[in-house]
Amino acid sequence: MRTNDLTPDLTDSQRKVLDFIQRFIAIYTVPPKLQEVAEGIGISSRGVAHRYVQALVEAGYIETDSGKHRGIRLLKSNPYRPESRLPLLGEIAAGKPIEAIPGQDEIDLSEFFGHNNFAVQVKGDSMIDAGILDGDTVIIEFRETADDGDIVVALIDESETTLKRFKRSQRGKYIKLIPENSEMEPMVYEAERVRIQGVLIGQLRKY
Q1: Helix axes 46-58, 12-28, angle to 10 degrees
Q2: Torsion angle, CA of 36/74/190/188, rounded to 10 degrees?
Q3: For the chain, what is the HEC assignment?
Q4: pLDDT block averages, 10 residues each, the chain of length 207
Q5: I need a labelling partner for 28 at 20 to 30 A (CA). Which of 18, 105, 108, 197 fits?
Q6: Catalytic positions
Q7: CB distance 37 to 17 below 8 Å
């Protein structure tokens, strides 16, 4: 399927900007500045980059807040993804062995996890009691809200990101970010200092 069939409302340049913004957030967990957008797509003009960004706003893919240092917020991701498929050869029992069943099906990882998401690699051992280890890759759904008990990517003071379990105080004034490590203490912040960027929906590990 062609990219044009999936994002008919965007030009090739606009899709390139959308893809860059999505990849930038996936890598750094903060949105890019306009100058970074321009450099990321290989142009020198911030004005041209601004026009591309504004087109994405009008198409409903992002929104911008001029009052923030990094004011781009992704509303929905580019539905085009490179092929990410693995052959599905059959079934295997987790108990006693059974014969693998040959087949021609595939698992499309982007379809399995959905399109409104990104992946980040875990550094550190603050979530080991939840089975999330240093070096694991976690799949995060883009969301700006979370329920108590969710594991979230939280942006603190618009500068520092962390993966922790989310809990809001009864009156909503404070947010507690709880590590899943018995040797670590929860972190408590005023609610306005924390912005939810996504919720954990999956995990990948290479052995």
Answers
A1: 90
A2: -90
A3: CCHHHHCCCCCHHHHHHHHHHHHHHHHHCCCCCHHHHHHHCCCCCHHHHHHHHHHHHHCCCEEECCCCCCCEEECCCCCCCCCCEEEECCCCCCCCCCCCCCCCEEEEHHHHHCCCEEEEECCCCCCHHHCCCCCCEEEEEECCCCCCCCEEEEEECCCEEEEEEEEECCCCCEEEEECCCCCCCCEEEEHHHEEEEEEEEEEECCC
A4: 49 88 77 89 90 92 82 73 53 51 58 70 90 88 90 86 90 91 92 90 85
A5: 108
A6: 126, 164
A7: yes
Domains, in order of start, for the chain:
3-74 (1.10.10.10), 117-204 (2.10.109.10)
Q: What pTM was computed for the model?
A: 0.59
